[in-house]
Write a structure and sequence with these properties.
124 residues; mainly beta; Immunoglobulin-like; 2 domains; 6-stranded antiparallel β-sheet; 11 strands
């Protein structure tokens, strides 16, 4: 999940975008280190580890030479569980198994929307 943070400022005599950093908070706790905002007053942060349920997310601008620190209102973000997909394939010949023989299977379980590099692959 990606959050975009936009810090806007206005000085009446000139156009001036705030500079510096913002700190993202998740359920009242700072999330990682402060993020540097770009020349347009924007920052982007990806949160890959939000817990399932409702989470409060907000940002705090840390200020610069012309602007004081300021905080956003909290956003209540709902994270839902994904329904995984599962597939089973045989590793060995798919023929009949006789008593005393073993058979190998490969079972793959993964959320359908995860990139391939994140798919857990467990063989038994």
């Amino acid at each position: 999940m990606t959050f975009s943070i936009d810090v806007n400022g206005l000085i009446p005599t000139q156009t001036y975008e705030p500079t510096g950093k913002v700190q993202l908070y998740v359920d009242g706790t700072p999330y990682n280190a402060p993020i540097t905002i770009d020349v347009n007053g924007q920052a982007t942060v990806a949160l890959a580890d939000l817990p399932v349920g409702t989470t409060s997310v907000w940002a705090r601008y840390l200020g610069d030479a012309k602007y004081k620190p300021a905080s956003s209102e909290a956003l209540q973000q709902v994270v839902k569980k994904r329904t995984p997909t599962a597939s089973t394939t045989t590793i060995d010949d798919p023929g009949t198994v006789v008593t005393g023989q073993s058979k190998g299977y490969k079972i793959t379980v993964a959320p359908a929307s995860f990139p391939d590099q994140w798919r857990p692959d467990r063989s038994r």
